[in-house]
Design goal:
With 345 residues, this protein is mostly helical. The chain is built from 14 helices and no strands. It is 74% helix and 0% strand. The longest helix is centred in the N-terminal third of the chain and has 70 residues, at 2-71.
Amino acid sequence: MDFESAEAIHGCRNEIMHKKDLNLQEEEMNSDDDLLEDGQSRQKAEKRRAKKKRQRERKKLEKKKHLEENEQEPEWDVNSAFVANAASHIRPKSRNKLDKKHSANKENEEKVHEDDCTDLMIQRARHLAEQGINSVNDGNYTKAIELFSEAIRLDPKDYRYFGNRSYCYDLLELYPKALVDADVSIQLSADWPKGYFRKGRALKGCNRYAEAEDAFKMVLKLDEECEEALIEIDTCQVLQLMAHGFTQGQSFHLLEEYGSVPAVMEAPISAKVLQENMKLDETGEEELLFLNELSETQSCSLWVGNITDQVTEKQLWDLFKWQIENPQRISGKTPRVNLGFLQWM
């Protein structure tokens, strides 16, 4: 029993050891399987990451390709006006800089072309103005107005053309038109004396003598040596007094005595002279009465030839009056006219 028990015990131990070996082998196989499964999982994970990476790269390539396709100029049916109009509104943004550059170049070209055209128009306007001046010298004022008008159409910024046309209107006694052109010439060139001179002439023709006097005084501010302006100022002052009821002779003498229209109107003698003028008839006796009111130092009596009883003072006055009201133009100037008075003996 003891021997059998020992063998049984030894057999049991061997069996137990064998089972342990089997268990260890089985555990090693299981661990190898676990390691194999872990390796396969990692491989699968790497494959999935690689696949996703390829998908991302493929999407990037597709997006890039799509953008490149959009940048290409679309082909349109040029026969379709609607499609052509639509195409002009859907051009790619990448062409904006090129389009702006092209537009800038086109604008510069147009500006250069416009400058060239402007130069040609200015040259043409000057040529027409020269022809207008020749027509004025020939006395053909209507033709001159047409030429100056065409020059103004080609070059409306040249103040001289308006001044020249104003001069022609003045000679044709179209004073309102002359005034309009004079004002325009002043607006274009406020320092041009002739503009104010043309305005003064036009205002005088419109019987606006006080305003005309102011315009001529402005001429003297810009050109102190303008004798024509001085003559025109004297004329405007005389016309202002005549409009108040004085005669031409009375106006000349009163201005010589008092110097200006306001001073004449404030003088005590003026009211008396105007009152006497209202009472007298048209025989011209007002001149004699007026001379009697002046001092002896102001006497301007003058003998004119041999006077007979048949020649009346009215006849002589009418002759002098016609000479004053119809002055001859000498080089565009109006000469100063003085009256001659007769003292009857």
